[in-house]
Fold this protein.
Amino acid sequence: AQSVTQLDSHVSVSEGTPVLLRCNYSSSYSPSLFWYVQHPNKGLQLLLKYTSAATLVKGINGFEAEFKKSETSFHLTKPSAHMSDAAEYFCVAPQGGAGGSYIPTFGRGTSLIVHP
Amino acid sequence: EPEVTQTPSHQVTQMGQEVILRCVPISNHLYFYWYRQILGQKVEFLVSFYNNEISEKSEIFDDQFSVERPDGSNFTLKIRSTKLEDSAMYFCASKKGQGFTGEQFFGPGTRLTVL
């Protein structure tokens, strides 16, 4: 079964500095992987997704993530943090359900704090 | 831009009462989902729904829970007899097509507080 581990519950950066949010997955096959962002009082929004095409995936708002099979990682990065990036970030992977379709498995989330 | 909406934003209820959480998915979407997030914990899948029937459900989704699409626009989650541990944020999501590569669009959530 697929599982997702987000290694940090909180990450704190200064505005203008790089962001790194870590995600590791466990799977015996190349999975689909997603990053979602949740701003306060808002629903989750898709940032980017990996679906077995290019290993470096670019998303919205300047975020990107690199799928590294050898490290079973899908870390989210951004070169320069902005105050508006402060939010909760979730790494998500599917696992097969008993009914034959996919069940999303969420990491515990990483809270990104951006200091001025 | 179309979006998923949920009502109410916050529901307070007494233990043992029934609650219905409402969602309006994006109009041309065919797949619907409910998730919950207990405070401080991860987002958990509850159920998926397609073609007027449940396609997947988690162990959390026991007989106390039910879902319904009563008309062409609403998608509801009913909890028959609420428990204290049902207190959580409940998210609805919808998706246009099949498979997992398509994007799910999430609503803003309903915070359920059971007293």
